[in-house]
Design a protein that fits this description.
By secondary structure, this protein is mainly alpha-helical. About 65% of the residues lie in helices and about 5% in strands. Strands 2-1-3-4 form a four-stranded mixed beta sheet, with helices on both faces.
């Protein structure tokens, strides 16, 4: 009997175009398109700012002013705007903040390229707009600095190696021992668990509201309760539909994410993207889905209980809005650097799944920790399901 009710509820969910659109089209088409569009717009904006002309003014003593200005103007997209007259800090700030200039380079009045002391120059710019375009200033001045260094070296009869020793006596070479998978997993592995927990919640949200508060509002819940089945059977059937929808959203999102990443990596020749996807094994993806199974059950039971309590669909939406923090706060743990899955954290529900997913992506997961992770989350889901069945079987809740 529970299978018949489950089929009936599943057909109703699939007939609802809003729910079908969210469960199927959102993770496979809309979400990749939105993420791809956001990445494209962001990259285009950064590229536009990076490749824009940098107008500048130079405050420097003669005869070095002309030499420094020539070195800057020979740089990439550096434009000397000699018409703008600035001489103090207030004028520097005003010209830069108003967009008249991008930067002002100030050289001390007592500067001399032949002096044996280090001179401190000041570069005034808006650091909030810096996306790397100001590195062109250092690149433009580097040949001039090297020329002056050569003149000092010849004047003091020093070899190039002696100058290098004076600048830096010891050169420390950093040799990383982490493989490429662990490196990529540490950098981007925190985002995936964050997204998966939110998708679990979002995948269960619309079906739960429709099968609970939605049926109350349509007046079809009373008809279903008149069938010769227990209220527990009805609740379990609805619970299974919601849990399956939640897992379906996660599965389709992961599949579309892998496919779109490979396609975009090949089309735009993004080797790092292709390499990141290829390092993740199929078994790791299966384990991540397995870890999310009790999480989907947890959200399905929680949202169904809230949905049955609500009188209308709109009231149910108001109740479930704060539940987003139930997914967001544990998921944020995986974003914090330095936090890894320990034997203690392996027993904390939700948090252990985010850290375990990150460890799986890095390839550092201890498979023995699957036992406490699955046990704690399954126990939590079972307790919440038992509460949901008992709660939703009460007439004070069903006919509220």
């Amino acid at each position: 009997m529970i299978a018949l009710i489950w089929l009936k509820e599943m057909r109703e969910v699939l007939r609802d175009k809003k729910t079908l659109w969210f469960v199927v089209l959102f993770p496979t088409v809309l979400l990749p398109a939105l993420m791809g569009g956001a990445i494209y717009v962001g990259a285009s904006s950064v590229k536009q700012v990076y490749e824009s002309d940098l107008r500048f003014q130079l405050v420097a003593p003669e005869p070095w002013r002309g030499e420094i200005a020539e070195a800057l103007t020979n740089g990439e997209r550096l434009v000397w705007d000699d018409q703008v007259q600035v001489s103090n800090r207030e004028q520097f700030d005003a010209a830069i903040n108003e967009g008249v200039l991008e930067f002002v380079l100030v050289v001390p009045d007592d500067f001399s390229a032949t002096a044996s002391e280090v001179s401190q120059w000041q570069l005034y710019y808006n650091q909030a707009d810096d996306v790397g375009q100001f590195d062109r200033i250092h690149q433009a001045l580097q040949p001039l600095f090297e020329q002056w260094q050569t003149e000092h070296r010849n004047a003091w009869n020093l070899t190039e190696s002696q100058v290098q020793v004076l600048k830096q006596a010891v050169e420390l070479e950093q040799v990383g021992v982490a493989d490429q998978r662990e490196f990529i997993g540490e950098k981007v592995g925190g985002f995936l668990p964050y997204a998966l927990l939110l998708l679990c919640l979002m995948g269960a949200l619309l079906p739960a509201l429709d099968l609970g508060a939605g049926e109350k509002e349509r007046g079809t819940l009373e008809t279903l309760l008149m069938a010769p089945v227990s209220k527990t059977t009805v609740v379990m059937a609805k619970f299974m539909v919601i849990a399956i929808c939640s897992l379906t959203v996660v599965l389709l999102t992961m599949a579309s994410g892998v496919v779109w990443s490979l396609v975009l990596g090949q089309v735009f020749a993004i080797e790092m993207l292709v390499e990141a996807i290829s390092t993740i094994g199929m078994m790791d993806l299966v384990l991540i889905l397995l870890l999310l199974l009790p999480i989907a059950m947890f959200f399905a039971a929680l949202l169904l209980a809230v949905s049955f309590y609500a009188r209308t669909y709109k009231e149910g939406q108001n109740y479930v809005a704060p539940l987003n923090f139930v997914a967001i706060l544990p998921a944020m743990v995986a974003l914090f650097p330095g936090i890894t899955l320990t034997s203690t954290l392996a027993w904390i529900p939700l948090v252990n799944v985010t850290l375990a997913s990150k460890a799986l992506l890095k390839g550092t997961f201890d498979y023995w920790q699957l036992m406490p992770i699955m046990a704690s989350n399954t126990l939590l889901a079972a307790l919440l399901l038992a509460f949901c069945v008992k709660w939703c079987s009460r007439e004070q809740v069903l006919f509220r």
